[in-house]
Write a structure and sequence with these properties.
It is built from four helices and six strands. The protein has about 110 residues and is α+β, with helices and mostly antiparallel strands.
């Protein structure tokens, strides 16, 4: 009787996580678990959100500034002095934002 109870109490203290379980947030892209909302938010933004360089003339967007510039130069010759604009794509729903802080506040609806 006492031996089993002692083993059970030792188990609760040392091995069992039943009483100390905490809420975790699992990344939907890579399955890493984070302890807090801010941690997973930061992780998703830095690891999974894509940045594109959008053509200032048409809807096309590119992974690099040189690609965007080459596109403007060849497709919109009269506008080759225009700079591409950076846009930020949400990894969760593909919504695109023109400012990174907007993407950050948008994340709250997913978490």
């Amino acid at each position: 009787g006492n031996f089993l109870l002692a083993n059970f109490e030792a188990h609760l203290k040392e091995a069992c996580l039943h009483f100390s379980r905490r809420v975790g947030y699992r990344c939907p892209s890579c399955a890493v678990v984070f302890g807090g909302v801010n941690s997973i938010k930061s992780h998703i933004q830095t690891s999974h959100c894509e940045v594109f360089h959008k053509c200032p003339i048409c809807p096309m967007a590119f992974k690099s500034a040189p690609s965007a510039h080459a596109h403007v130069y060849t497709q919109h010759p009269g506008f080759s002095n225009q700079q591409s604009k950076m846009i930020y794509k949400c990894a969760m729903c593909d919504t695109v934002f023109t400012h990174k802080p907007l993407l950050s506040s948008h994340f709250d609806q997913h978490l």
